[in-house]
């Protein structure tokens, strides 16, 4: 039985692979996973060995990892990296089971033209976000990784699709690769993009930028935050037309750049209110960088009928 064995939840992305470990699959433990995040190459055809080396080294050095036969439950958007990881894990831990999840394993209703083409990570993130609320609440789930996805789950709990755009790091890399003079910003510079906002009285948005680096960072912020806000208002209008209270619309942010995105969104809503000469209440914003990992855990727990108690506080 799954409930009797330790669980490794794995989120294989295009840039990073995250591994969460739970010695016992109970919901209190969901708050305290041992987690590994390993940067790897973006190119699907590149050698996947760096992430495998990182995971194996983590397994060998971590004293808290059980030697008992365990289950690996994997959400992946990269088959090559997942295949290599499975081979290395089986060599080190031959008694473990290794299960690759599919869309049919995610218990969420999907309204999508071709469900087989829906990214597994998007479905799991939406399913995981459903557990953040006691009642049916419409929300946008934003996963900020190599690609940024902005998906809508309606008041029925149905995944209704969304939008995909380049994430902050990919945007910066594209500007550098396709131009002759624009610099490549470091990860620290990209993640510091919220520095473009300064709260000085009623002016919160620093534009225009007066040097190239800040101009790039400002563009990175606007390309993501502007898209989120645009889709937010679009969905809000849809709720009004359907007789649903628009004030309940919520944002759920996941991924490595979630905190930066939250700060920038709050500044953006504040700026909008300043321009309109009124107070614009920012929506409720939840931040959970491990949203997909937690969703994988919940899928495992659901199989044995564990009852969820909720696990996240409002930001």
Task: Walk me through this protein's architecture.
There is one protein chain. The chain has helices at residues 49-61, 79-92, 120-130, 168-177, 187-191, 212-241, 258-276, 291-303; strands spanning 7-12, 16-22, 34-39, 71-76, 97-100, 139-144, 147-153, 159-166, 197-200, 203-205, 250-254, 285-287. 37% of the residues lie in helices and 21% in strands. The chain starts with 6 loop residues before the first strand and ends in a 12-residue tail after the last helix. Mean pLDDT is 79; it is low at 39-45, 193-205 and 309-315. A five-stranded mixed sheet has the order 3-2-1-4-5, sandwiched between helices. A five-stranded mixed sheet has the order 8-7-6-11-12, with helices on both faces. It contains eight helices and twelve strands. Helix 1 (49-61) runs parallel beside helix 2 (79-92) and helix 6 crosses helix 7. The longest helix has 30 residues, at 212-241.
Question: What keywords describe this structure?
Answer:
315 residues; alpha/beta; Nucleotidyltransferase, domain 5; 2 domains; five-stranded mixed β-sheet; disordered C terminus
């Amino acid at each position: 039985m799954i409930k009797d064995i330790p669980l490794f939840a794995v989120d294989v992305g295009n840039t990073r692979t995250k591994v969460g470990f739970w010695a016992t699959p109970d919901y209190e433990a969901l708050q305290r996973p041992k987690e590994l995040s390993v940067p790897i190459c973006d190119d699907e055809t590149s050698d996947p060995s760096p992430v495998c080396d990182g995971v194996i080294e983590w397994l060998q050095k971590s004293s808290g990892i059980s030697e008992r036969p365990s289950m690996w439950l994997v959400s992946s958007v990269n088959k090559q990296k997942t295949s290599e990881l499975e081979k290395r894990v089986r060599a080190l831990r031959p008694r473990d089971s290794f299960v690759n999840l599919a869309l049919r394993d995610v218990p969420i209703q999907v309204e999508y033209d071709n469900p087989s083409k829906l990214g597994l990570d998007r479905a799991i993130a939406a399913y995981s976000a459903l557990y953040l609320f006691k009642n049916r609440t419409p929300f946008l789930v934003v996963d900020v990784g190599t690609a940024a996805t902005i998906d809508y789950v309606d008041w029925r709990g149905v995944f209704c699709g969304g939008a995909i755009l380049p994430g902050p790091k990919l945007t910066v890399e594209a500007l550098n690769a396709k131009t002759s003079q624009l610099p490549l910003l470091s990860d620290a510079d990209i993640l510091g993009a919220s520095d473009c906002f300064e709260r000085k009285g009623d002016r919160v948005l620093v534009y225009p930028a007066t040097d190239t680096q800040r101009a790039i960072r400002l563009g990175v912020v606007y390309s993501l935050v502007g898209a989120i806000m645009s889709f937010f208002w679009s969905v809000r209008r849809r709720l009004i037309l359907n007789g649903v209270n628009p004030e309940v619309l919520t944002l759920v942010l996941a991924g490595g750049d979630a905190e930066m995105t939250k700060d920038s969104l709050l500044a953006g809503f504040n700026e909008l209110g300043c321009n309109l000469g009124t107070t614009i209440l920012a929506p409720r914003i939840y931040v959970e960088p491990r949203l997909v990992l937690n969703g994988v855990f919940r899928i495992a727990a659901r199989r044995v009928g564990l009852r969820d108690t909720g696990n996240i506080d409002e930001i």
